[in-house]
Fold this protein.
Amino acid sequence: MDRIYLDHAATSPMHPKVAEKMLEIMNHHFGNPSSIHSFGREARHLLDQSREVIANSIGAKESEIIFTSGGTEADNMALFGVVESYQHQGKHIITTLIEHHAVLHACQKLEKMGFEITYLPVDETGRIKLTDFKAAIREDTILVSIMYGNNEVGTIQPITEIGHILKDHQAVFHTDAVQAYGIEHINVNDSHIDLLSVSAHKINGPKGTGFLFARENVKLAPRSFGGDQERKRRAGTENVSSIAGLSEAILISQKERSDKREKFKSYKEVMMNELREASIEFLVNGSLDHSLPHVLNLSFPGINVEAMLVNLDLAGIAVSSGSACTAGSIEPSHVLVAMFGHGSERLINSIRFSFGLNTTNEQVVKAAQETARIVARLIK
Amino acid sequence: MIYFDNSATTKPYAEVLDSFFKISNDFFGNPSSLHGLGSQSEKLLSQARIQMANLLNVKPGEIIFTSGGTESNNFAIKGAAFMYKKRGNHLITSSVEHPSVSKAMEQLEELGFEVTYLPVDKNGKVQVEDVERAIRKDTILISVMHVNNEVGTVQPIREVGKLLEKYPNILFHVDAVQGIGKMDLPLKDFGVDMCSISAHKFHGLKGTGALFVREGVGLTPLLSGGEQERNMRSGTENVAGAVAMAKALRMTMEKKEKGIEKMKNVQRGLIDDFGEMEGIIVHTQIESASPHIVNFSVPGIKSEVFIHALEQEHIFVSTTSACSSKKKSPSKTLLAMGVPEPIADSSIRISLSYENTEEEAAAVLNAIKRVVNKLRKVMN
Ligand SMILES: Cc1ncc(COP(=O)(O)O)c(C=O)c1O
Ligand SMILES: Cc1ncc(COP(=O)(O)O)c(C=O)c1O
């Protein structure tokens, strides 16, 4: 059975060119970048090169990129680093109800530490309202953390508008771009973004690597102490091969982005058309207008998500009920709760399909047909 | 080419790379995903955990995967301090720790904790009597490294652990990043509560490490998010990296069986021969050191100059620790041992792995003789 992987938002396979690059480095340039001999200098050079590629990809300066162990660390570093540095200017933070747990759980911890958090609601498409946002801003707001694109339903937030609103406010603007980076065009200057988190394993890079963009003038208290790596903002021997792998993944994604966007958008249509043709009733969770091209979240009235996942898995199709992190738990998705309320049927009948490297039209058709068959069977 | 800088970082074993890329290719799923690919990843991760636990003689539930030695040390020290601050706010450590321990301690001092830094004797060793004298009613944590990364001195872990049997409320953390795979460290017998290791020091990959946390010991997490690693360490797990680390540790421990005597011979040979060379001061005292490190000074010749001269001969050694080698400051450990600054300024560290041979050691010795003569001539 040919398996079909439609869970690229949970994690993505490494691109063969990324693996090739990493293998090369692990074998031949394994030095510690802090060493002063040529092994060290080579490793340092690789780091510098990668930093340049990464900075260019979002219009940042090289000195504004901090390498981390992934999206979670980047989010935590942004939130805790900012509040520690700015707490004398206020105790108020704005975020949304639909953030990834890396932001939400950090916010809950900040609440316990005495910070006041406003969790912005979203509409049925998963978007915040700018009027709500403006109303939430206070003089003592020190941080705004709003994700770029949602990992469960794919909805994109009005990031540039938010950035413009905050332009003359003291609050530092962080966005979790873990899902959006690589597929959306992002420029931190045009959008007035101060901090931005990225994770490599979502864009065909290795797991355990990511970065935080932190604008030059933003004060960011470090959280991990030790050696003087990353300009004292993040101690620890740098994961050179993975960082270079991330940089390679970025170069590839830049080349392929516009093709990929068109392709994935058409996959969404193909999927929905197949379902319609099979007369399967479904609803789109999110909005097709403001949406990440690779994420399609559908609700199938009358089915139960767990039975659905099991059946799809047996049919060799890997999809998910929401984010991978909440997948293991029985709790309903906090994102769908925010969109539809606690009583909604959609909490127990929604499936996330997400596209990526090597996803073909045939696979999407096949997955849609299988889905249709299973839905029809389960509804009976 | 002779690489004698294995305390800075090591070359990953070919088999380790095979594992890493095989898993990255074939089992790239997110361990939190419910589908087949996800459960395969979860299984691999749990096998890696069991393997690590077996090698360290602890329980699988006591192993937490991290992004390296620095994170492990920061997590152990701050996680314990925050968790147990109601018991007291006094911590004890040595004055020769790696910066990822000492700077974490400094951060805690800024947050209101009190830290005692124990002195060392002329060999770099902590005295157990000093530990006992430093203990107070409000002491909650003692952190002492196993093997010093600059001169190789082994600390009296067994004795400190024994002493702490009388103080059940004091946690004992050991930074075993340098010692693992060279010196035995029976964690349970020695009463160790937490222990840090880092894979790139034993032919695993950079950006992967582990923290042993004895069952029953709680730590306040430093990373909030998806609640991976039993809610202690959030972030998508680096499955391939963890499996590669387990493999590297197994291989290193196997190589130790056969290779430790050879390593000791090489070390003894180097120390004896340096002892016979005029004007060389050996800082590593063989009886109290791990067999993989030899630290010595060639007074009058700056370490950087010496290192670059050896590099001309394709021999790679280092000044002190890689982390501080960018800065011009002399070795903290040597100063703590009472070595005068000008001599500390000219110190060189050789660090071995089981891959190094006696022939290489002979070649290095000859090269060192040549370089010393040449540089002395230039200076005179
Ligand atoms: C939106 C979002 N933020 C943060 C993360 C966390 O990233 P990582 O898994 O690299 O820690 C994820 C994925 O897990 C995500 O989808
Ligand atoms: C004794 C010791 N502890 C901790 C570390 C830090 O480990 P890592 O480089 O994995 O962050 C090192 C090496 O750099 C070390 O030698």
Observations:
- The pocket of pyridoxal-5'-phosphate (ligand 2) is lined by residues A 236-237; B 68-70, 73, 98, 100, 145, 149, 175, 177-178, 198, 209, 323 (CB under 6 Å).
- The mean pLDDT of chain B is 95.
- Chain B is about 40% helix and 15% strand.
- The radius of gyration of chain B is 21 Å.
